[in-house]
Design brief:
Elements (H helix, E strand, L loop, with lengths): L1 E5 L12 H15 L3 E6 L12 E5 L17 H15 L5
Parallel strand pairs: 1-2, 2-3
Length: 96
Amino acid sequence: MRLLYVSADPGVPPLGAKGCSVHVRELVAAFAATGASVVVASPRTDADGERLHGATLVGIPAPALHRSTMTSPSRSSLDVSVDEVAAGAISGSAVS
């Protein structure tokens, strides 16, 4: 099974040390332990002394929010990037 885990919140680096980051890594490790091939897509790929075991980490642009409503546009650059990452994950090639 191939999984694409999208962690689109720019405040949650998957390789960070705080709770949400640990949650992402633990969930990804659990998926990988079942034999799944996991790709993690995040706008934050900076390392903070941690490693992502059992998965490939790829960068995507941070979602742009409309200041007036603080909601994502209907078809953002994030949507397009996630589509590209998913297509790469399905075809077996990593997208950077």
